[in-house]
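Example 9 (inverse folding). The structure is encoded as follows.
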């Protein structure tokens, strides 16, 4: 399979990228991002794309790909709803629409988060915006579309969050991961399993559209 990845410099996106590069089922990876991921690999093709409000110039390129793993995201902390909607909904829809027009048989996976509000009416601004984004992607009509809603995530393979607050939290939590794993079980996932789950979703399909940590872990374990 050939896959597109966004957000590959972030914690989740980089985890997904590493799993795709290691998996024999993935034959080509296109990374779309504002900055280089700094990785060289025979499978990897990078395109520096500065303006995420439009992908029209990339549409012909996208046609050959079987899946898009849209891992790009920002924290809503301290951000206005208008700005967050631009960065989350507008940018995601620009990519999704271009992917759909290029190849409607593509599998599209969007990373939102646990607590996302599908009703679009809740109090939490970020949850409403992500809920609308999920809903509008699903309305496009992709052959397969999955909404990944991870909660507690353990970064593996040396990956670090780009957000300072999260880096500090993970540093403090590092000695206690075995305890969290024992207490949380399937409610804790990691960057490796998220990547494996996305690949399996394309290769094997899945009956559930919305996947939180337990569903992500189950899909990752499929053989």
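The amino acid assigned to each position is listed next.
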């Amino acid at each position: 399979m050939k896959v597109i990845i966004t957000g590959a410099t972030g914690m989740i996106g980089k985890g997904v990228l590493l799993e795709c590069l290691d998996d024999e089922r993935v034959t080509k990876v296109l990374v779309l991002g504002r900055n280089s991921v700094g990785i060289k690999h025979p499978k990897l093709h990078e395109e520096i794309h500065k303006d995420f409000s439009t992908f029209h110039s990339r549409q012909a390129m996208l046609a050959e790909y079987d899946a898009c793993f849209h891992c790009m995201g920002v924290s809503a902390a301290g951000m206005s709803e208008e700005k967050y909607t631009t960065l989350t909904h507008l940018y995601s829809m620009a990519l999704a629409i271009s992917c759909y027009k290029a190849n409607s048989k593509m599998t599209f996976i969007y990373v939102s988060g646990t607590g996302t509000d599908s009703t679009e009416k809740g109090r939490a601004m970020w949850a409403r915006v992500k809920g609308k984004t999920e809903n509008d992607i699903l309305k496009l009509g992709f052959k397969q579309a999955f909404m990944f809603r991870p909660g507690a995530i353990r970064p593996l393979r040396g990956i670090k969050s780009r957000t300072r607050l999260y880096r500090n939290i993970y540093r403090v939590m590092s000695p206690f991961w075995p305890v969290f794993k024992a207490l949380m079980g399937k409610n804790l996932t990691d960057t490796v399993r998220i990547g494996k789950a996305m690949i399996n979703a394309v290769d094997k399909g899945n009956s559930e559209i919305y996947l939180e940590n337990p569903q992500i872990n189950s899909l990752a374990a499929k053989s």
